[in-house]
Amino acid sequence: MSRFHLILFLFLASSSPLFGQSKLGAYLKYAEEKYNKGDYYYAVELYEKAMEIDSNSVSTLWKYAETLKSYKDYRKAEYYFAKVYDREQGGIYPMSLINLGLMQKHNGKYDEALETFKKAKKKFYKDKKSYEYLKSKRELESCLWAKSAIKDTANVNYLRLPETVNSFDSEFGHNLHNGVLVFSSLRADSINTAEEVYSTTYKTRLFQSELKDGIFEKSSRIEDLMIEKLNTGNGTFSADGKRFYFSLCADEGYNYKCKIMVANFDNDNWSSIDSLGEIINEEGANTTMPCIGELDGQEVLFFSSDREGTEGGMDIWFSAIKNGNQFSKVRNVKTINSRDNDLSPWWDKTSNTLYFSSSWLDGFGGYDIFKVHYQTQFEEPQNIGLPYNSPANDLYYFKSGDTSYFSSNRLGVMFSKNPTCCSDIFTTFPPLKIENPTPKETLADLNKRLPVTLYFHNDCPDPKSRDTLTKVNYINGYGEYRAMLDKYQLEYSNGLSGEKSEEAKEDIESFFIEYVDQGVKDLYLFRDLLLEELQKGSKINITVKGFASPLAKTDYNVSLTKRRISSLVNYLIAYENGIFRPYLMNNAPNGGKVLFNQVPFGEYTANKLTSDNFHDQKNSVYSRAAAIERKIEIQSVDYIQDDSLLFITELSPNFIDLAAISQIAPFSKTLQFKNKGNAILEIDRIEIENDYVKVTIPNVINGNSTVPFIFESNKTLPKGLFSFPVSIYFRGYRQAISVMINGEGF
Known about the structure:
Blueprint: H1 3-15, H2 17-20, H3 23-36, H4 40-53, H5 58-70, H6 74-88, H7 96-106, H8 110-123, H9 131-149, E1 157-160, E2 170-177, E3 180-186, E4 204-212, E5 215-216, E6 220-221, E7 231-237, E8 243-249, E9 258-266, E10 269-275, E11 287-295, E12 298-305, E13 315-322, E14 326-327, E15 331-332, E16 342-348, E17 353-358, E18 368-373, E19 382-383, E20 394-400, E21 403-408, E22 424-429, H10 439-447, E23 452-455, H11 474-482, H12 485-492, H13 498-535, E24 539-547, H14 554-574, H15 581-584, E25 593-600, H16 617-620, H17 624-627, E26 631-639, E27 649-652, E28 655-661, E29 667-675, E30 681-688, E31 694-696, E32 700-701, E33 705-713, E34 720-730, E35 736-745
Parallel strand pairs: 24-25, 28-35
Antiparallel strand pairs: 1-22, 2-3, 3-4, 4-5, 4-6, 7-8, 8-9, 9-10, 11-12, 12-13, 13-14, 13-15, 16-17, 17-18, 18-19, 20-21, 21-22, 23-26, 24-26, 27-29, 29-33, 30-32, 30-34, 31-33, 34-35
């Protein structure tokens, strides 16, 4: 239906007696017709007219929300999916809650989306093999990942290509060949749900734009590849540049949705257009997005298809090419394919890396761009991060030299109606190199990852021990802890039945996903950033705080939290055959060092409502409330200056445990301070955040000597939990000696 005919229809529907009694039915009928044909913009207008007559129909609200989702109007779609769910609680439209969460995620509302997916996961728990349950669980994990990963942005700039390439409709980039950008353009107001480049009203065509002196010239349609009444797009050249593969997509009435074609290419001319055989174009399947790559020295054709054997939605497949036109048996790239769509493969021969987009793996929005390295086999996929990806859909990645290109419908595209309706082609490029970055610029990447929180099973590691050190590697302990999920679910649901029992099990599983697993993912990211800094020769001081649930006594818990911190250090020592060891042992050739400042709180900060009853282990051990208290936190990272005070002094202990203490009871604690160097140390200043504590120390400490540091108070202490940090600075040193004083006044 053309724009003119739509206006004519709306006029007749609103004024003619013929439509008087059935306007609502007519609007809904034609809206559904437009939706099924992919004309989402027109369908939106028709549904809005229908809602002017009846806005209470849940069915109409659902169809309108679905159309807004397909039209990629994420803000409005979120609002109307929320209305649908409020009305029917997922009873009529089970996907209403999941779609609400997806729209919240598209809008960058990760905290809200997280809570929505938790609800959805509980709703679908009865069938844990269903798509709805698995999607809810997957998106819950993806939101947690996005909340953490949004702290990191690649050191690149990006911009939208000019109007010589992009338009107010949709553009998708494919490759830059001999200085000419080949791309697809759908000159329409909307595109279909899976980002496929075909529509019944407007046709997708292949275009080209020459890049001259860094400027893209006005684009032109490739007339030789235009096939009347059908859609063409997704172009890729063979390794020798003599063949050009592209997609041919049809409307209703054909035995395929899309299939892959090939044309000869010579002297800027395309000829001998033909379809690839049934080995590639399986009858009845949607086969599209071809890309030429190379595996083990063999030219291969990558493509996306929903052919038989697909994991779900569209999968990425490949086939080896012999003699230019013979294809081997098609194989599925199982490492990356998922229950959702996996699209737009692109092969980088310089790094043996396959790039693709997926709506299932950990991402910021709908489709994110991923990469997977190949070395005799495909490894695990990795999200390529910001700013390549966004809360919107990001696809069709490719690279030319140091410059990357991708297509996205993120905020900032050209549009006439809906700011995220249509995709443009963007480019990214590295910024100017800045020599000798300052410590603040590099340390910021580490600190913005904090806190990194790691969780433990009760009394682990080394149960019933009073040691402050352990041989346990945290990741090994995490694996054993994670394997206890079934035990936690069984114990925490003990005594419950039916829906209450299942809710308790889901609650514990969500804790493991949201906290325990996410802590490990955060640790891996922190670890890699820390290693980068140390390999530059940086000297790093890391403050780690330890916590425990209130099941055991205070002095025992302080030792336990020290063991937990020790297990983290053990993990770093063991990682990659000891790559951190020289930095931890202070013998790295480049001078890099890492020290851990340990602050074991025991159970002082634990929620006092958490059970400490040994005979009530359902609540004191296996409950979410108890489990969330058993943790350590990497809380701060600082640079250590050369000749740091930390290397020539020793304070034992560096933590004062007052336990439960009367507010009016005076206290006095003596710590032993050792000057291990030959030089005399002079007190510069003492910093205390309050006036409860008085510190008595000598003004001058001779070399190679030990003196008492006395901490005391005669004042009324605060009621409840308290923590007093005390920092002692010495003349000529930036680094401070720190002491934590913890207790609970009563």
